[in-house]
Amino acid sequence: MLCVKCKGRLYCGKSSCPILDSFYSRSYQIREMDERPTPPSVFVGRTGYPKIYAGPMLVLGDQNPEIYENPSAFSSSVEEVLSLRMGLARTYRIFTVESAKNPDRNLSALQEIASSIRFVDVEGEYDRIIRKPSLDDITMPSGISAVFRKVRIVSNPKIPQKVEKVSEDEIRAVDGVMNLYISGFSTSYIQRVFSVGMLGMERKLVPTRWSITAVHDIIAETLKKEIVNFDSINEVLLFSYQHYGNHFEVILYPSSYSFQLVEIWIEKSLWSPERTWIGSDRETAGRKKEYSDLSGGYYAARLPVVEHLHRMRRQAGVIVLREILPEYTAPLGVWVVEEGVRKAMNSKPERFHSLDDALNTAERRIKTRRDRWEKHIQLYQQMSLKQFL
Amino acid sequence: MIDVIMDGDILKSITRAMVALVSEARFHFMDDRIHSRAVDPANVAMVIFDVSRENLEAYSIDEEKTVGVDVNRIYDIAKSIKKNELVELKVEDEATLRVKFGSVEYSVSLIDPSAIRKEPKIPNLELPAKIVLDAGEFKKAIAAADRISDHVIFRSDSTGFYIEAEGDVDRIVFHMSEADLIEFNRAEARSMFSIEYLKEFIKVAGTGDMLTVHLGTNYPVRLVFDVSGGKARVEYILAPRIEAE
After folding, report:
1. CATH number for position A245
2. What percent of chain A has pLDDT over 70?
3. Which of chain A's residues have a Cβ under 8 Å away from the Cβ of B40?
4. Which of A56, A219, A359, B61 has the highest count of CB atoms within 10 angstroms of its CB?
């Protein structure tokens, strides 16, 4: 089952991905000289690293520019989200990742755009328009792309003082991320300023794809260090949510911290057209060292649960079941997972005395037979030495 | 003032032992030994080392003293010590540790001991089974188990000592009977442990080093390694995993 592991990275050796190619962008246009708003949104590619393509994403569609980057304002249908995002163009030129150490005018404009919390109008000169849309399992989709010769900001970006300060401070990127996170900035905002090289002592551009997972990972691993000092919960809690053909069941049970994600890609769902594929990955309280086999979705699912435990000031064993239904016809990015699990965690949980009761209830809402996914769950708890003092 | 000369291999072993769990630790220079212990941030495992005075080439301290050490840094330095080379550790003021071997001398900043995470209490464990074996054999078993699972079961009964791991499609059983073991009391015990920790622990020892396992049922395990030709003692205590209800 190659597709579900590859998710468009062309492990099959074909020159383009047949699953991704089934999406075509509508006929949006960008003129050679054009002025367009950006939600704000920036694109930092990974092809050619350390010489990469980066630039602002511009709104070609006719809706309020801020909607394009704001999942909470999205429609609940995959097709409508896709069609909205196809109205967004990636514009880019080549930068070396090191150029963030000493940004030129174009990169400074990009940094200002990234750090704005309101939409920004951008004027630019464009050529080489490419009609192929970008679809990816981690980043949000977008439509056409164009190379820019230069870009200029023509409205006032609204940049919070806090961000300017954190960016100017000589602190590690990890501390910069946590500083912004504690001040209440959203993960998508932090990911944006992280990707344009505004955090850390060794300034670098970071491909959007990597920065999304890096930020998910940095925040969760930092919160985990505190969570291990909290008491365990003393009942079993079950949270559930479904959107965009992604169904989530989250179980918290009395234990020291552990986290496991089981992904079920139902037959005919996006990355698994031929048969149902089930995969799992897990961790205990120590830092997760190897990149997850379940890729960015693992880190996106973990963060909202860790946030929840941190808010409760409790630790727990965590099982997340994610079932992907055939309705998930196009990859929308890992925000689908992050937001889905976050909404589950914000809902009122069902309470149980035993883990098995919780699994019985979750089973009824999952389409795939229990005997197929149950063996992926490891039902143990890691004890702490404190329990033996 | 502290001035110690020891086998370079001892420094390598004790810092390697600590970095498995922490990046900084308090080293106690006591009248009769050098001692340190630390617990990992998750409170799942503990490491303790002791090097007694008679195993040091030279040991001179004005008074018992505790210093805060960046063990990652010292381990990095210790890696370049050649076999059979001696190393001298010197603390003259509160701020610097000097590490000298061959023709190089490193000066490494010390950490204020009070800034280092509090030292753990050592749990008082009653563990029925005692198994003594070659650390190299244990290492092989853990490395093999790591390829198929993220946890192992340690089991002991009258027929011997077992390390078992189960993957999605395969299973490994490592068995040593009484005849293969250096010492064995045939007691019954069975506990499950995370390989993530064990595979860090085994890095401290090699073939020829002796390992004593103290095992109970659904209880922490004590793994006592005699390393550096028996001159240093490194002990790990690891909390078990148990079936969730």
Report:
1. 3.30.230
2. 95
3. 286
4. A56
Q: How many CB atoms lie within 10 A of CB A7?
A: 20
Burial B181-211 (b: 16+ CB within 10 A, else e): beebeebebbbbbbbbbbbbbbebbeeebbb
- The Cα–Cα gap between A8 and B224 comes to 49
Q: A267 and A186, same structural domain?
A: no
**Domain-ending residue, one of A135, A153, A171:** A153
Phi, psi dihedral angles at B5 (to 5 degrees): -120, 130
Considering only the beta carbons, identify the residue of B120, B168, B245 that sits closest to A385.
B120
Distance CA B98, CA B91 (A): 6
Q: For residue A335, is it within any domain?
A: yes
- Domain B129-238 belongs in CATH node 3.40.640.10: no
Asked if residue A309 and residue A360 are part of one domain, the reply reads: yes
Identify whether A279 is part of a domain: yes
- Rounded average pLDDT per 10-residue block, chain B, 245 residues: 94 95 94 94 91 95 93 94 93 91 93 88 93 96 92 96 90 95 96 94 92 97 95 96 77
Q: Choosing among B19, B146, B191, B241, which should be mutated to test the A contact, i.e. which has the most A CBs within 10 A?
A: B241
Contacts of A255 in chain B (CB under 8 A): 244
Inter-chain contacts counted by CB atoms under 8 A, chains A and B: 80
Q: Which of A286, A375, A388 sits opposite B42 (nearest CB)?
A: A286
Q: Which fold has domain B2-113?
A: Proliferating Cell Nuclear Antigen (3.70.10)
Q: Cα dist. A210→A47, A103, A194, A219, B172 in Å?
A: 12, 20, 10, 14, 37
d(CA A381, CA A233): 13
Q: pTM of this prediction?
A: 0.77
Angle at A326 between CA A322 and CA A329, to 5 degrees: 100
Whether residues A251 and A372 fall in one domain:
yes
Distance from chain centroid for Cα A189: 11
Amino acid at B146: D
* Domains B2-113 and B129-238 alike in fold: yes
Q: Does B192 touch chain A (CB under 8 A)?
A: yes
- Does some domain include residue A13? no
**Which phi and psi angles does B220 have, rounded to 5°?**
-60, 155
Q: Distance (Å) from the C-alpha of residue B5 to the closest C-alpha of chain A?
A: 35
Please tell me whether residues A241 and A332 are part of one structural domain: yes
CA-nearest of A174, A135, A148, A106 to A25 is: A135
Rounded alpha-carbon distances, angstroms, from residue A42 to A6, A180, A187, A189, A343: 25, 18, 15, 11, 26
- Structural domain span for residue A217: 162-227
Q: Which residues in chain A have their CB less than 8 angstroms from residue B127's CB?
A: none
Domain spans, chain B: 2-113, 129-238
Interface test with B, best of A382, A384, A386, A388 (most B CBs within 10 A): A382
Q: Give the pair of three-digit tokens for residue A353.
A: 């005395």
Residue A187 lies in a domain: yes
Asked if A388's CB is within 8 angstroms of B220's CB, the reply is yes
Could you report the predicted ipTM of this complex, rounded to two decimals? 0.90
